Amino acid sequence: MRNVVIAASMGLSLCGCATHESVYREALNNCQAVGISEQDPQFGTCTQAYARQHLEDRLTETYHDALNPTPEDRRIAHQWHGY
What we know:
The protein is an all-alpha fold. The chain has three helices and no strands. It has helices spanning 2-17, 21-33, 43-67.
């Protein structure tokens, strides 16, 4: 039983580190847009930087959503204070 739990937690941790394919494609397109092609030596660094930036932006957005859990209603003027 213990080995199953260890194997399952290792599998979940590997899935958590993986970058989603659409994020990688977006990073690839961003690198190509700034003139870095797949043949350039800094291409891997560029795609990792753009993918990491996307993940950090999502983390920040999720954090702010957790601080202000009420849905935004456009009919009511909300002022988010960020407490």
